[in-house]
Amino acid sequence: MAYVVVMPRSGQTMEEGIIVEWMKKEGDQVLQGEPLLTIMTDKVNLEVESDYSGILYKILLGPDDGDIACLTPMAIISQPGEVVDVENVLANYEAGR
């Protein structure tokens, strides 16, 4: 099963963030609770930990993408060896929001 990594909402006033850097690259193993990327909010830089274990299948957004609204998909984590239909995963995420 594939999971969508979204821009987190840190606090009640946060509406967007900027990706500073990905600590993992596509194809890397990711463990739940492990730092995945750093984001910048209007007040502070935050390390975002992975909510899932698996493989960082696809990075959708990066540091050059500027302001990213909270809950916007940023990446997909899959199980090892899983073939992911990225468009389908994103469509299912949007349908469930």
What labels would you give this structure?
97 residues; mainly beta; OB fold (Dihydrolipoamide Acetyltransferase, E2P); 4-stranded antiparallel beta sheet; 1 helix
Helices and strands in order:
Blueprint: E1 3-6, E2 16-22, E3 29-30, E4 35-40, E5 45-49, E6 54-59, E7 67-69, E8 73-78, H1 86-96
Fraction in beta strands: 35-45%
Number of domains: 1
Query: H/E series, N to C?
Result: EEEEEEEEH
Architecture per CATH nomenclature, i.e. the level-2 architecture: Beta Barrel
The fourth-level CATH homologous superfamily is RNA polymerase II/Efflux pump adaptor protein, barrel-sandwich hybrid domain
- Any low-confidence stretches, pLDDT <50, length ≥5? none
Overall geometry comes to globular
Round the mean pLDDT to the nearest integer and report it. Answer: 94
Distance between the termini: 18 Å
Helix fraction by DSSP (H/I, runs of at least 4):
10-25%
In CATH terms, what is the fold-level topology? OB fold (Dihydrolipoamide Acetyltransferase, E2P)
Number of helices: 1
Supply the helix-strand structural class.
mainly beta
Commentary on this structure:
- The chain has 97 residues and is mostly beta strands.
- It has one domain: Beta Barrel (OB fold (Dihydrolipoamide Acetyltransferase, E2P)), CATH 2.40.50.100.
- The protein is built from 1 helix and 8 strands, in the order ββββββββα.
- The protein has one helix at 86-96; strands at 3-6, 16-22, 29-30, 35-40, 45-49, 54-59, 67-69, 73-78.
- The strands form 2 sheets. A 4-stranded antiparallel β-sheet has the order 1-8-6-3, with helices on one face. A 4-stranded antiparallel β-sheet has the order 5-4-2-7, with no helix packed on it.
- It starts with a strand and ends with a helix.
- The mean pLDDT is 94.
